[in-house]
Design a protein that fits this description.
Elements: E1 3-5, E2 10-12, E3 24-33, E4 35-38, E5 41-44, E6 50-57, E7 60-65, E8 77-79, E9 85-89, E10 99-105, E11 115-124, E12 130-135, E13 144-152, E14 158-167, H1 172-181
Parallel strand pairs: 1-12
Antiparallel strand pairs: 2-14, 3-9, 3-11, 4-5, 6-7, 6-10, 8-9, 10-13, 11-12, 13-14
């Protein structure tokens, strides 16, 4: 059963069927361009967004997965390279990695004012079950957004927390000051 998350809410990441260890999760992004009235009627201009997964070990950046580096150095996090989807094999994430932060940015500099119906879905890759959905704010002149983070709780279990904070960074590097506030 899927959970609709709001900013700040968390869910524990177990298999949808409750069996086995930590699941392989997939974060999928979806959006539509906002229609604009032009000389020849309403049109949609394509908006190119890029998702990233930023890996931290006790607050220190250790690796990044994005369109120019599709697989983490340890192989546990993968970017599809085509659609904006990132998979994380939580059972393979090294113990030293304490947080993985998901971001999205407009590398070409388009603002989120050009988006509507912007959301992300968290899916259990082995079952295809949607675990959570997070509707994100479109609109605004920002160029990026810190979406969510996954991290281990005190008992070692993984949980996802929805963040949804806009930033003006067009790359994950430019977004680091905002990302670090949410570790």
């Amino acid at each position: 059963m899927s959970v609709s998350l709001s900013t700040g809410q968390s869910i524990r990441l177990d298999h949808a069927d409750g069996e086995g260890g930590p699941p392989v999760i997939r974060l999928d992004l979806d959006w539509q361009a906002t229609p604009r009235r032009g000389m020849f009627g309403w049109r949609r201009r394509e908006v190119d967004l890029d998702a990233s997964a930023v890996l931290f070990a006790d607050g220190v950046l250790t690796d990044v997965v994005f369109f120019q580096h599709l697989v983490s150095n340890d192989g546990s996090v993968r970017h599809t390279g085509e659609s904006e989807s990132i998979t994380v094999d939580l059972g393979r994430v090294p113990d030293r990695i304490t947080r993985i932060v998901f971001t999205v940015n407009s590398y070409n500099g388009q603002s989120f004012a050009e988006l509507q119906h912007f959301h992300c879905e968290l899916v259990d890759e082995s079952t295809g079950a949607e675990l959570a959905r997070f509707t994100l704010s479109g609109g605004g002149e920002h160029r990026g957004q810190v979406l969510a983070k996954v991290g281990r709780d005190e008992g070692g279990a993984w949980e996802l927390t929805a963040i949804g904070v806009p930033t003006h960074g067009q790359t994950f590097r430019e977004m680091l000051p905002v990302i670090e506030k949410h570790l």
